[in-house]
Structure formats: structure tokens, C-alpha cells
Amino acid sequence: MMEQEITVTIKDGLHARPAADLVKKLGTVSSAVQLYSGQKEYNPKSIISLMSGTIKEGETIRVVVTGSDEEETMAWLNDFFAGKTL
């Protein structure tokens, strides 16, 4: 299990397009991923779960990744939330 706090630097936060990109990418990984914003937990493999949140630019989230490809997944998530994969 890997856990990390990441500051979202995606312009305008996690809106529809980046949320869709996140769901698409995480559908290809075997690790389980959980996102926490404050006390709320979001399933990043579900567009509905992500869109129910209001993860904004500049917000710090907690990311937990568990599974066989957790290191690669966490590295990709760091790049994603930094806006490097969009």
C-alpha cells in the first residue's frame, strides 16, 4: 500500500474532461485507488463519484494505492494531478 498527499495543480480542478481521463486510465490498472478530499472518499474509477466532488485547483488530496502496480500507478497519479498527462 502506498499513501501520499498530492496538491492538485490541474487548471480549474478536476472537472469533466480530466475526470474522464482519470477514469479511463485507472480502468487499465490492477491496483485499487482511493481519493480523499477532507473527510470525503471518492472512487476515481467512477465518473459519477468524481463529479460528485469538488476537487479544485490548489487543493491537497490524499491518495491511497494498493496492488501489484501501485508504484507505477502512484507515479502516474502524481503526474496527472500536476497536469502533466493532460
UniProtKB/TrEMBL annotation:
It holds the Pfam family PTS-HPr. Residues 1-86 form the HPr domain. Keywords: Cytoplasm, Phosphotransferase system, Sugar transport, Transport. The keyword RNA-binding does not apply. InterPro entries: HPr, HPr-like, HPr-like_sf, PTS_HPr_His_P_site. It is found in: Cytoplasm. Gene3D superfamilies: HPr-like. Its main location: cytoplasm. The keyword Methyltransferase does not apply. It comes from the Bacteria. General (non sugar-specific) component of the phosphoenolpyruvate-dependent sugar phosphotransferase system (sugar PTS). This major carbohydrate active-transport system catalyzes the phosphorylation of incoming sugar substrates concomitantly with their translocation across the cell membrane. The phosphoryl group from phosphoenolpyruvate (PEP) is transferred to the phosphoryl carrier protein HPr by enzyme I. Phospho-HPr then transfers it to the PTS EIIA domain. NCBIfam families: PTS_HPr_family. This is Phosphocarrier protein HPr.
